[in-house]
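Re: the request from the purification team.
They wanted to know what the chain is likely to look like in 3D before they choose a buffer screen. I agreed to run a prediction and write the result into the notebook, where they can find it.
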Amino acid sequence: MTTSAAQEFDPQSIAGNAELKAFLEFRSTGKIPLKHGIPLALKALVADIPLALLRAWPGPIGIKLRQLYYGLRFQQMGAGVIIESGADILRPGGISAADFVFIDKHVSLHLLSGTLTLGRRIHIAPYALIAGASDIHLGDYCGIGAYARIYSHSEAPVGGKRMTGPMIPEDMKGMITAPVYVGKDAVIGTGAVVLPGCVIGEGAIVGANSLVPARTKIPPYTIYVGVPVRFAGMRERVSVPDI
């Protein structure tokens, strides 16, 4: 599996995101005009407060309520999906989740654009972050460790441009935007970072607190560790049947 070529990210191309439009106006002028401010204030009262309660509701009732809500908002949701309390999900309409996906407590799914595809029976552990502006695919049975971070968009030292975050206009900022693919049965260890354009092969393991630089391709069933990652060994192929 390979990712497609890197692409330019233009936040102006994201249709229907009122918060982003207001932020871009503020970044440019230091003000939020009433045409953005009034609808956002009304949305906060009508939608944002109830959604905050939904996200925070603990226990089985909260899980069931989030199943119902995100079942309507996701592009697709399979059976038995668990979304724990504190999960922060941006653009649910760009997410497809297969059966028995477990999105644990305080996971952040923040794709500004593109799609996030979650395969069968995967676990995204607490405080993991999956973010960017291009497609991210997590294959069946893969595991994303606590505090791991996967990015399909990141600032980068490109062309002498700045790379200091969202307050810099995009035409002045060095960026890499490219899809990320994590294969079936792959594991991204606790605290590991995967940058744009990476391909993590089937059954591969990225060790805890490791850094996978942009556009790195890790072969199937290998073990890579370190900052940046380097080959550390092989694992046995998965031999149990799919469920």
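For the purification team: Residues 13-56 form one domain.
Please add any questions underneath this entry.
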